[in-house]
Write a structure and sequence with these properties.
alpha/beta, seven-stranded mixed β-sheet, five-stranded parallel β-sheet, 2 helices, about 15% helix, globular, binds coenzyme A
C-alpha cells in the first residue's frame, strides 16, 4: 500500500517536472501533444517554433536549439541534440565568428532563421545523436548512438556514424512495414510515469 502511494506520488512529480520543463520552452511558437515526457536539464529553444507530437519521449539533457517538428511516438535517448547548421555567420570578412550574425537575432533576421529539423512518427534517436537543421528523418527510422546526421534519412532506415550513413533496415519488406503501421494505427499505446510495467502497449490486429 505504502509502495503504491510512493509510486503514485513519484509519478505525479515526474509529470509535473515535464510540465515545468515544457513551460520553460523558449520559442515564439511552442506546440506540445499529450502524454509527453521530458527528462532532466533540457534546453528547448528555437528562433521560430518547436512542435512535439503525442506520446513522445525526450531523455535527459536533450538540447533542441533549432526549429523542429517532431512527430508522435518518437524516442529521444539522453543527450540528443537538434542544432542549427548555420547558427552563426562565419563568412563575413572582418567579423570574428564569436560576433558573427546569429540566427536568433530579432532586429536583423538571419536568412537561416526558418531552418529546422523534421522528425516523423515512430523514430528513435540513439544516445548522443546530433541532428543538423535542414534534415528530415522519415517515419520509423532509427539513428544509432553517437551519430551526426547531416542529410535526410529515408523511412524505416537505420543510420549510424559521422556522417550518418545507412547501416540497416528496421523491417525486411514493405509488407512488414504496412503490417506494422496498420497495427500501430489501430492499437492503444499509453505511457505511464509509474514505469514500463504500467504502460499500455496493445497493438491492433494485423
Ligand atoms: C542503431 C542500433 C539500434 C543498431 O543495432 P543493430 O540492428 O543490432 O545493428 P548491428 O549492431 O547489427 O549493427 C549494424 C552495423 O551498424 C554498425 N553500428 C551499430 N551501431 C553503430 C553506431 N552507434 N555508430 C556507427 N555504426 C554503428 C555496426 O558496427 C554494424 O556494422 P558492420 O556490419 O559493418 O559491423 C544500435 O547500434 C544503437 O545505436 N542503438 C541505440 C542505443 C541507445 O542509444 N540507447 C539509449 C537508450 S534510449
Amino acid at each position: 500500500m505504502l509502495r503504491t502511494i510512493k509510486q503514485t506520488l513519484a509519478a505525479a512529480m515526474r509529470r509535473l517536472a515535464t510540465r515545468v520543463r515544457l513551460a520553460r520552452c523558449r520559442a515564439p511558437v511552442c506546440r506540445f501533444g499529450t502524454d509527453l515526457h521530458v527528462g532532466s536539464r533540457p534546453r528547448l529553444w528555437a528562433p521560430e517554433r518547436i512542435e512535439i507530437g503525442d506520446h513522445t519521449y525526450l531523455g535527459h539533457e536533450v538540447s533542441i536549439e533549432t526549429n523542429c517538428r517532431i512527430g508522435r511516438h518518437v524516442l529521444f535517448a539522453n543527450r540528443v541534440a537538434l542544432v542549427g547548421r548555420r547558427d552563426h555567420d562565419f563568412r563575413t570578412p572582418g567579423v570574428p565568428v564569436r560576433f558573427g550574425h546569429w540566427v536568433g537575432a530579432e532586429r536583423t533576421p538571419s536568412p537561416f532563421r526558418g531552418d529546422g529539423v523534421v522528425i516523423d512518427d515512430d523514430v528513435w534517436l540513439g544516445y548522443g545523436a546530433v541532428v543538423l537543421s535542414g534534415v528530415h528523418i522519415g517515419r520509423g527510422a532509427i539513428v544509432a548512438a553517437g551519430s551526426v546526421v547531416k542529410g535526410d534519412v529515408a523511412p524505416y532506415t537505420i543510420v549510424g556514424g559521422n556522417p550518418a550513413v545507412p547501416i540497416g533496415l528496421r523491417f525486411k519488406t514493405n509488407e512488414e512495414i504496412a503490417r506494422h503501421e496498420a497495427m500501430v494505427a489501430s492499437g492503444t499505446f499509453r505511457f505511464s510515469e509509474k514505469g514500463y510495467d504500467h504502460w499500455v502497449v496493445r497493438p491492433g490486429p494485423p
